[in-house]
Design brief:
The protein is built from five helices and eight strands; from the N terminus they run H-E-E-E-E-E-H-E-H-H-E-E-H. The longest helix has 25 residues. The protein is of the alpha/beta class and 193 residues long. Strand 5, helix 2 and strand 6 form a beta-alpha-beta unit.
């Protein structure tokens, strides 16, 4: 995922956010509410203000268990950040921009329908026979619609052949939407700092 982190970092630099305020490998911890701190994959901190925090995740194989872990992690990280933000450790920060990137292996086990377990209650209709790829699309869409994240980016890839390929299965969760939202935040911050 390092290449995607570098791509987003380079785009932030091109928008006028200077490198010393973009953190990718070191100094990526910020306070949480339910835990002392959380490491993010990319942070932008300008003049003592938290501008943006982004998670970059991938999944290859073990789709069932990993999907559940990634779901809990994504919801938990955002909930933790917003609770901490409410309590003020990032003052004088305006509302930071929060992003989530997921790269999913496109394989038979990720694209075939999966039966939901319903021993006591029925699952929501959108999850019925949804593959893990579709479940990620549902998850990332809901993360934005519930305002836990400002934008999400979903990619799937195949490792067939020497080059493989990437695709974006949902236009709403595209790189274009993700980066447009992030650049708008970056440009607004550049004007106010």
């Amino acid at each position: 995922m390092d290449g995607f982190v570098e791509l987003v970092r380079d785009l932030l630099e091109e928008s006028g956010i200077e490198k010393p305020v973009i953190f990718c490998e070191r100094y990526v911890e910020i306070p949480g509410w339910f835990r002392p701190e959380k490491k993010w994959d990319l942070l932008v901190v300008l003049d003592g203000c938290l501008i943006a925090a982004i998670e970059f995740k991938s999944q290859v194989g073990s789709f069932g268990n990993n999907y559940n872990n990634r779901t809990e992690e994504a919801v938990g990280s955002a909930t933790d950040l917003w609770a901490a933000y409410r309590e003020g450790p990032f003052k004088p920060s305006a509302r930071p921009w929060l992003g989530y990137v997921m790269l999913l292996e496109e394989a038979p086990d990720s694209t075939r329908p999966v039966k939901a377990q319903e021993p006591h209650f029925k699952v929501f209709e959108e999850f019925r026979s949804a593959s893990y790829a579709k479940r990620y699309e549902i998850l990332l869409t809901k993360l934005v619609r519930e305002r836990l994240y400002d934008a999400t980016w979903l990619m799937s890839n195949s490792t067939d052949g020497p080059q493989g390929y990437y695709r974006e299965p949902a236009p709403e969760l595209s790189f274009a939407n993700f980066v447009t939202s992030l650049m708008a935040k970056a440009m607004a911050c550049k004007k106010t700092h």
